[in-house]
Amino acid sequence: MPKEINILVLEEDAGSQNAIQMMMDGEGWKVRILGNATEGMQALAQGSWALVVASLTLAEFSSPLFQILKELASAPPVEEGKSRVRVLFVVPAGAESAFTPTLDASRLPYTVKPYQLNEFIEKVNDLLLQAQFLTKTSRERGFAFEQRTSAAKGKKGKAAGAGNSMFASRDEYYYSEEELAEYEKEEQERQKKKKKLTDRPL
Q1: What's the pTM?
Q2: Structural domains in the chain?
Q3: 152-198, pLDDT tens digit by residue?
Q4: What is the rounded distance in angstroms from the CA atom of residue 196 to the CA atom of residue 87?
């Protein structure tokens, strides 16, 4: 029987939260997203997670949260036959030089914004495979996006308008990396506009 895959996402940016949620939903994983470091610490202590995806704007190098995540990421993926939680750090766009040297020196897994869909899912799958939460990658299960390109052509207009979300389900719609980045950008702009409206004096 396959193991239940619970993923904790620590990300304070609303656009990125939505982008990650969309990618994870396509894989059928259970996801909890938190935008606060204190809540993230509590969730780590209380939950049973297969993977933690942590933005370094929230889990700063000097923070207790980062130190805990670093220890988890450095631990063996499997100990005494038991799968251990894996960690994937997220580097802010344009800030590679400030973060990647430290991550590389400590051999910590990371990805860089803006999210590249195939690369992100591949890294997540690799980490889950290392800890034996998965026995097959998404490509082996037949969910590779590049294999859906031709089948998805002609569906975009219909699928994009289906349901209440911006995108249809993964089985019905092909998300290119450019579309995902554009979606994240649009979500960020929407959140900025929403904040301006709520900040206006009455």
Answers
A1: 0.70
A2: 6-143 (3.40.50.2300)
A3: 444 444 333 333 222 233 343 345 556 666 767 776 776 676 666 55
A4: 34
